[in-house]
Design brief:
single chain; 464 residues; alpha/beta; Rossmann fold; 2 domains; seven-stranded mixed sheet; three-stranded parallel sheet; 14 helices; 12 strands; disordered N terminus
């Protein structure tokens, strides 16, 4: 099996953008916090590395923690701008280059603006510094070193990157710095003690789709189509194959080189195997030509067509066209973007009040909100005068049984090297030109989750 390097990854995302008709936008750029919680900030243009402007320290932080108002949208909910000594927090995203993966950091930026306008962390504002790794492992290492060693961040929040999980593992462990990431993609994001994503990842999400195909449609022959990027696409389909052996499901994996995609050949190879279901474990933009090629062959009703969260894109139904209406299912790692739970409602309100109108309102944005909220709520329990990297790391390591309507299960920071607290999801289908939730929460059956579930029970990481 041929593997591809960073150059082909860049080609993948370039192709993704051309398929979606989008262009890379700047990374999340914070602006000065509004003085009142209902004031929307004026949008500004700057680079990804520009920090969130925190108020100059004019007063010492409170000596003790304060209880947030019962209806607080964020922070203390008191409508008072935080003016104490800033708490410096970092974030790394793949923003410029072939694609813009800053949605999570943009959401975290909006959350921290709301936090700072509502008392901050017991009087101390968060100064959120977002760096762009430009889809380059070496750049990822450089910006991480800057944030960790020069800027002295107490933690990372909202990270979303294809390359930085692996590039910075040693640094994070040596410096004992925690990363509450928005979105993890490759395997390295889920197998280290200092890096904790809020999402489930492509392997778990695609497996959820495979299970649904088996249980809903009786699909006993399934094709998994993914990129041949090691520890990403290959890791995903290998998980489906392992599950299939135990479930009595035959699985054929087709790995594509996105830099030289022949969608028709891929579709014909899948069809020749005569599957019951086809899993398109690809970004939405790369999956689009696969669906177009399948339409050319009129394969809509020959097999069931499914995918992971990556195709749960609000623009995807229009991108693949009316031909597919009622024929595509996706597993979603977080709740539907139009759901009415308290966290999803708060996320939308924060984005509308403190975000930019152009900021995405998608699953990755929900994940950034979660990362920022988990971090902030943890720090609100600490003595504000004693907050530093050591105290923050210690506090975040204690997070467990965290509940949110955005997630099916409880979230936690594992004491071990496996971080996959989010391992259940819902199903959505394209109906009437939009995504509609069709199945509520169910657990995925990845054999690699066995040890995680045992640890959850042993350590009390989730409620019994």
């Amino acid at each position: 099996m041929k593997h591809i390097g960073l150059g082909s990854i860049a080609m993948l995302l370039s192709f993704l953008l051309s398929a979606c008709g989008g262009a890379a936008a700047p990374a999340a750029v914070p602006t000065t916090e509004p003085a009142a919680p209902t004031a929307a900030p004026a949008p500004t243009a700057a680079s990804a590395a520009a920090p969130t402007a925190a108020p100059a320290p004019t007063a010492a932080p409170a000596a003790a923690t304060q209880a947030p108002a019962p209806t607080a949208l964020c922070g203390l909910g008191n409508g008072k701008a935080a003016s104490g000594e800033p708490i410096v927090v970092g974030g790394i995203v793949g923003a410029t280059g072939p694609d813009n993966w800053s949605s999570g950091a943009k959401s975290a930026t909006a959350y921290f603006k709301c936090l700072n306008a509502n008392g901050g962390i017991n009087g101390r504002p968060v100064n959120y510094l977002v760096e762009d790794d430009k889809w380059n492992p070496e750049q990822a290492a450089l910006v991480a070193a800057k944030l960790v060693k020069d800027d002295k961040v107490v933690a990372m929040v909202g990270n979303t990157s294809f390359v930085e999980c692996g590039a910075n593992r040693q640094l994070y462990e040596q410096e004992d710095l925690m990363v509450i990431a928005a979105v993890g993609v490759p395997r390295e994001c889920f197998e280290q003690k200092n890096y904790v994503p809020t999402n489930a990842g492509p392997r778990v999400s695609t497996l959820g789709a495979a299970q649904y195909a088996f249980q809903k449609y009786g699909a006993k022959r399934q094709v998994c189509i993914a990129t041949n990027v090691p520890n990403a696409g290959t890791w995903t389909c290998e998980g489906i194959e392992a599950w299939g052996k135990g479930a009595g499901v035959e699985v054929k994996s087709i790995y594509i080189d996105p830099g030289a995609l022949d969608a028709t050949s891929v579709v014909l190879e899948a069809a020749a195997w005569k599957p019951d279901a086809v899993l398109t474990s690809l970004p939405a933009g790369v999956a689009t030509p696969i669906f177009k090629a399948a339409q050319d062959q009129d394969l809509r009703e020959k097999f069931h067509w499914l995918g992971p969260t990556s195709i749960y894109d609000l623009k995807f139904p229009a991108a693949i066209g009316d031909y597919w209406d009622g024929y595509v299912d996706a597993q979603i790692e977080l709740n539907a973007t139009d759901s009415s739970g308290p966290d999803n409602t708060a996320w939308r309100k924060i984005m509308d009040t403190y975000g930019d109108p152009s900021d995405p309102r998608d699953t990755f944005s929900q994940a950034g909100y979660l990362a920022a909220k988990i971090f902030s709520q943890t720090l609100l329990k600490l003595d504000p005068a004693k907050i530093d990297r050591q105290s923050v790391t210690a506090a975040l390591r204690q997070v467990k049984q965290y509940k949110s309507d955005l997630m099916c299960g409880e979230w936690y920071v594992s004491p071990g090297d496996r971080q996959n607290a989010n391992h259940a999801g819902r199903m959505a289908s394209i109906k009437g030109g939009k995504w509609v939730t069709v199945a509520d929460c169910f657990e995925t059956q990845d054999i690699d989750l066995k040890a995680i579930r045992e640890l959850e029970a042993k350590e009390g990481l989730v409620s019994k």
